[in-house]
Amino acid sequence: MLTKDKITEIYCIADDFCKEFDAEIKKHQILPCGDRKSRNRPHRMSDSEMLTILICFHYGTFRNFKHYYLFYIGQHLKNEFPNQLSYNRFIQIEHQLFAPFVLFLKLICFGECTGITFVDSTSIAVCKNKRIKRNKVFKDMAEVGKSTVGWFYGFKLHLVCNDKGELINFCLTKGNVDDRNREVFNVLSKDLYGKLYADKGYISASLFELLFNDGIHLVTGIRSNMKNCLMPLRDRILLRKRSVIETINDELKNICHVEHSRHRGKANFLINLLAGLTAYSFFDKKPAIKLEWESPSLQLSLFA
């Protein structure tokens, strides 16, 4: 539930980050030569205020950003955002937040690897299937792919989370990219160690070897046509707890609304996705598992 206290908390964290970000940018900024003057007038609304507005939109209360911005922010939160821009101007300049948004998500919002991680991918459709040939916004960018639900046109969101339900890393690819793609795992496997639990779609001898050389043990189930093999009880139980990352995908789509078919620009699509991932990171309650070791003989008690 989005409250004013939660909005204040998000704003304070975003404002502290934006101040440090602006200070670092000024250190590496190229000054104009000679007497040449350059315009660098700041916007009436600060970056931290814009970040807060975008993040709070994805708390599941609203589906239409224009209605949320004009009637909720403009009327009920007028005192909290006194320098509110017009809706058209806000949409026009929100793409400038892409770089600070990515850094804010990776440096502030992401969790740390605990040795128990889960990986999965979910489809991000950008339009209905019957309008694939008429879609012009993502022409030559999105691709037709197939998931367990069916065919879709758009992208794939690859996620890695820990046992606490915290996001560790993500990667966005075209819809026809295989989940076992090496370039994808070169991004996802950064700073990972221990065991990585995945579904049967990640079965690959070459991928297992690639991750094992980096100190990551990929644990998956087996298909019906494969020979059975012994698996430690601990891995077998944790493999059943993959519902953690599946629940995260469900919350990102049905609460944070990272997927919809009303995009009018590529930059706004990316900002919408980053804002949804950031909003999830601020959720008070996340899907997690509780580990309690009873003895050194690999006995543990798991609670969803």
Describe the structure.
It is a single chain. The longest helix has 24 residues, at 4-27. Helix 1 (4-27) packs across helix 2 (47-57), helix 2 crosses helix 10 (266-281) and helix 5 runs parallel beside helix 10 (266-281). Residues 295-304 have low confidence and may be disordered. Strands 1, 2, 3, 4, 5 and 6 form a six-stranded mixed β-sheet that branches. Strands 7-8 form a two-stranded antiparallel sheet. The protein contains ten helices and eight strands. It has 304 residues and is of the alpha/beta class.
Helix-strand category: alpha/beta
Sheet-strand content, in percent, reads 15-25%
* First and last CA, distance: 22 Å
**Average pLDDT:** 88
Q: What coarse outline follows from CA principal-axis ratios? A: globular
Count of beta strands: 8
Indicate the radius of gyration in whole angstroms.
Answer: 22 Å
Relative helix content: 25-40%
Low-confidence stretches: 295-304
Number of helices: 10
Order of helices and strands: HHHHHEEEEHEHEHHHEE
- Main sheet attributes: strand count, strand direction, barrel closure: 6 strands, mixed
What secondary-structure arrangement, pairings included, does this model have?
Layout (H helix, E strand, L loop, with lengths): L3 H24 L19 H11 L7 H12 L10 H7 L4 H12 L6 E10 L17 E4 L4 E12 L4 E8 L7 H7 L5 E4 L7 H9 L2 E4 L13 H8 L2 H12 L11 H16 L8 E6 L3 E5 L1
Helix pairs in contact: 1-2, 2-10, 5-10
What is the gist of this entry?
With 304 residues, the chain is of the alpha/beta class.
List the main descriptive attributes of the protein structure presented here.
single chain; 304 residues; alpha/beta; six-stranded mixed beta sheet; two-stranded antiparallel sheet; 10 helices; disordered C terminus
